[in-house]
Amino acid sequence: MPLPVEVETEQHQGTESKQARIEAHAVIGEKGRLVIPLHIRQAMGFEAGDEVEMYVQDHEVHFSTRWNRLQRAQERAQRFFALGRSLAEELIAERRADAQSE
Questions:
Q1: What CA–CA distance (Å, rounded) separates 54 from 16?
Q2: Residue 81: which residues within 8 A CB-CB, separation 6 or more?
Q3: Per-residue pLDDT tens for 67-82?
Q4: Residue extents of the structural domains in the chain
């Protein structure tokens, strides 16, 4: 029988976006296995066969996929660059200018 899932939405100060907090309870099996409840997997975008990275910090276990971590890093980096600016295009232009000057 699936365990109930509690869903909370919290507003973070200083931001306009809302970030959902999804909670669930599960039991660790005899062999140390933990089944991630469906609602959590859906919220994280986890699918069968995905490789999941995890780490422990402050007595909490954090799960993510490489794709999710890359996407979060890109979102954070965008705050430092003007909209429409492409660092890849700037690097290519710089390399072409260097090659022409040789």
A1: 29
A2: 87
A3: 888 888 888 888 877 7
A4: 1-44, 49-102
> From the CA atom positions of the chain, what is the Rg in Å?
21
Tracing tokens 């365990």 back to the chain, one arrives at 3
Task: Return the structure tokens found at 2.
Answer: 């699936």
User: Rounded to two decimals, what is the model's pTM?
Assistant: 0.53
Strand bridging mode 53-57 / 18-23 = unpaired
CA distances from 8 to 3, 18, 22, 98 (A): 16, 10, 6, 54
Contact, 3 vs 26, CB < 8 A? yes
Q: Give the separation between CA 20 and CA 33, rounded to whole angstroms.
A: 26
Q: For residue 40, what are the CA distances in angstroms to 48, 51, 91, 101?
A: 13, 16, 40, 55
